[in-house]
Write a structure and sequence with these properties.
single chain, about 500 residues, alpha/beta, Rossmann fold, UDP-N-acetylmuramoyl-L-alanine:D-glutamate ligase, 11-stranded mixed sheet, 7-stranded parallel sheet, 17 helices, 20 strands, about 15% strand, elongated
């Protein structure tokens, strides 16, 4: 699969190596010129953030260290006090050339970091590094972390894997990162994203047209421009009918939020398919949403509910199953029965995902969009939440492959995986960290699927629409006090941007 034009490519380490080699070998761009421009951009970021004060450059032996040496030379030429601490061992050819250009001596990397430094430049390990840092480089990373002095990283914070965002036990946590040519996946995906700080992309003179394609991309706002709009000939059915199946005692709010989220995202006809014994709760809360009362057992949906629900789906559209469902055995059996028999696009969210814990392969062929958070994805894969948090990119790809589905791993860096491609959310508002916002997202995905948007694009657009609505809600209500219904109220405005 190829990245759509509404995804900004995020090249991994292998693709960046190939791109550099192409620029140098095929286009005739001198490698020292690339390093000089990288160092200039790095020095410029230091000047912008720290206009004065002592600078300490921590430089490794490779080209990343060479970038740091260039920055140190330029800052010193501009009148700054600069200490250059260089790792032991043989330097790369371009780093050695820039060491010769310095005209001044360097200090061993093991030299104590001056306590009066205003800023440290981390030029220890570049995008090609992986695994745990070792030797004097590892010691320097620990010293930098212990110093409490702000750090600006060259290309990628040392200890962060540029291709995946995984983080070594010993890793820099930068205030900002100057990355070269393009942002890398590890700068945009947690936990690496939290180590990168503010990211500035520095153009270093690599021509357009490099061969190879990224498999990870950052979601652009113009994905929303591809969505269908209501016209004068539209009806409530052509706008997209959505059925939301869920609810159980104590969990009636979740399907309500999913249903209202679907409405505000453009669905023309929404039906809440809920336990009959709780139907009056939904009738009183959902004025513009139809309700379908299904036979239940003590407030839980059962496999017998699947047939009447599917009969109600005669107008097509999309089905959202799981919000507020609960995890009773009969409720999970209902999900399996429904998914096995449904022919319309599906969103499986929240408790609905528990029906497939450790059994993702059972979803192959269902054409579903799954919307787990880290704990739910861990249950689906049969691993720990900590493992998912540490390796979000690997885990979401593994789940998408196993299920043959689109998988949306929620978080501020929400990842949408399908067919080998991964779309990364550029972030939203911390205010979205409140109960019910995931239910809203499931409803938004359902609305776009009902509008006949293909699943990957529907999930990506829903993630961005939800994020922008979260940003707008935080601006209006304040991020610490906003609630899920505030996000719903902003969806319609953002949808028509």
């Amino acid at each position: 699969m190829t990245l759509a034009d509404w995804l900004e490519p995020l090249p991994d380490a292998e693709l960046m190596r190939a791109t550099d080699a192409w620029a140098i070998g095929e286009c005739g761009v001198p490698s020292l010129d690339l390093m000089e421009r990288a160092g200039e951009g790095l020095a410029g970021l230091v000047r912008d953030l720290f206009p004065g004060g002592r600078v300490v450059v921590l430089a490794g032996r490779g080209n990343n260290g060479g970038d740091g040496l260039v920055a140190g030379r330029l800052l010193r030429a501009g009148g700054r006090e600069v200490d250059l601490l260089l790792a032991d061992g043989e330097l790369s050819a371009d780093a050695a050339a820039n060491l010769a250009r310095l005209g001044v001596g360097t200090l061993p990397l093991a030299t104590p970091i001056p306590a009066d430094a205003a800023v440290l430049i981390d030029a220890l390990l570049g995008t090609g590094a992986s695994g745990e840092p070792r030797g004097d480089v590892a010691d320097a990373i620990r010293a930098a972390c212990d110093s409490g002095i702000p750090v600006i990283s060259a290309d990628i914070p040392s200890g962060v894997d540029a291709s995946s965002g995984t983080v070594a036990a010993t890793a820099i946590r930068a205030l900002a990162t100057a990355t070269f040519h393009a942002a890398k996946p590890g700068l945009c995906i947690e936990p690496g994203r939290s180590h990168a700080g503010t990211v500035r992309v520095i153009e270093i003179g690599i021509p357009d047209g490099a061969p190879g394609e990224a498999s990870v991309g950052l979601i652009r706002d113009d994905v929303l421009d591809t969505l269908p709009r209501r016209g004068v000939a539209s009806t409530k059915f052509t706008s997209g009918p959505v059925l939301v199946a869920g609810g159980s005692p104590g969990l009636t709010g979740a399907p309500c939020l999913a249903a209202m989220g679907a409405q505000r995202a453009g669905a023309g006809y929404v039906t809440a398919c809920v336990p009959a014994s709780l139907s009056m709760v939904f009738e009183s809360r959902l004025l513009e949403v139809m309700t379908l009362a299904l036979p239940d057992d003590g407030g839980s949906l059962t496999p017998a509910c699947a047939a009447p629900l599917l009969a109600a789906a005669r107008h097509g559209g999309a089905l959202v199953v799981g919000p507020g469902l609960g995890r009773r055995d009969e409720a999970l059996a209902f999900v399996r029965e429904l998914v096995a028999s449904a022919s319309l696009p599906l969103v499986i969210d929240a408790d609905g995902l528990s029906a497939y814990a450790g059994e993702l392969a059972a979803l192959r062929g269902a054409g579903a969009v799954l919307t787990p958070h880290e704990g739910e994805l861990a249950r689906l894969l049969g691993i720990s939440s900590e493992e998912v948090a540490a390796e979000r990119l690997r885990c979401v790809r593994e789940a998408a492959e196993a299920a043959g589905a689109v998988v949306v791993l929620k978080g501020d860096d929400t990842l949408v995986a399908a067919g080998g491609l991964v779309a990364v959310s550029p972030g939203a508002s911390a205010g979205l960290a409140t109960a019910g916002t995931g239910d809203v997202l499931a409803g938004v995905v359902g609305a776009l699927l009902a509008a006949q948007v293909e699943p990957l694009r529907a999930a990506v657009a829903a993630v961005r629409l939800h994020a922008l609505a979260g940003i707008a809600a935080a601006a209006r209500r304040g991020r610490d006090g906003m609630i899920a219904s505030d996000v719903i109220e902003e969806l319609a405005v953002v949808r028509t941007r």
